[in-house]
Amino acid sequence: MVRISPAPQEDWTEEIAAYVTGFRSAVASNVPEEDRQPGTNLLGTLARHPSLAMVFLSFNRHLLAQSTLSIRQRELMVLRVATLRRSDYEWAQHVILADRAGITADEITRIAEGPAAPGWSGIDRALLAATDELIGEGAVSDETWRVLSGEFGEQQLMDIVFTVGCYAMLATALRSFDVQPEPGLVPYLPEHTLAARSLTSRD
Fold it and tell me: Carboxymuconolactone decarboxylase-like domain: from which residue to which, for each copy (predicted)?
């Protein structure tokens, strides 16, 4: 059961409607508008609390449009967060972004397996390990920090930590509010979720 239903767009305040429009414009990629996921269930849920939504989206906008990390690096970590936090909505949204960033289907499968999966470069493995450590222990280990600090500057290291923190918080909200995927996200849900949905629909 959806715990907080998304507010229909016609019920949004003018302020939040304008803010969301600006947010979407700021984080737009080169993908045509008709191919972009609308995110109406997530944005509609946030629209129930406009002051909170605007503050959160400002933070999120930095990570999506102004981060010192590459899109590939960001998406590796976000998909790992979605796996660890079991957020199907977050996973589906970011599988699409990962594909556009050039992350292969094989790599996406290995993200679910984690940093110990064979085939990762040293930096990719360290980013995934940092994600696991931040989620599991609340801090990056000294060993992982040494690897990351050999590749990244201070602002990049800060963006790594805040990317994991932001998307872990978002995953918690998505699951706690039971935000449902829009139809366009359904094909990108994790395999176990698609299998469960198929069984439910047959029942």
Answer: 54-132
